[in-house]
Amino acid sequence: xxxxxxxxxxxxxxxxxxxxxxxxxxxxxxxxxxxxxxxxxxxxxxxxxxxxxxxxxxxxxxxxxxxxxxxxxx
Length: 74
Fold this sequence. Notes:
This protein is of the alpha+beta class. 18% of the residues lie in helices and 43% in strands. A 4-stranded antiparallel beta sheet has the order 3-2-1-4, with no helix packed on it. The longest helix has 9 residues, at 62-70. The two termini are 14 Å apart.
């Protein structure tokens, strides 16, 4: 979804995400334009397993952007 569906006016997004395919590890999500990177960071340990993403852009439609990310929830 990050590569194909994020709007062109979103310049950058980054965050720590919980990935269903590897639930034991925290992952870093970084996106600039259409370039994306998902990197395993190590175990969650005692930290709550949740995703937190920051998006930077111009005139972003927050409800539409939230809906795009919500579709990724497992």
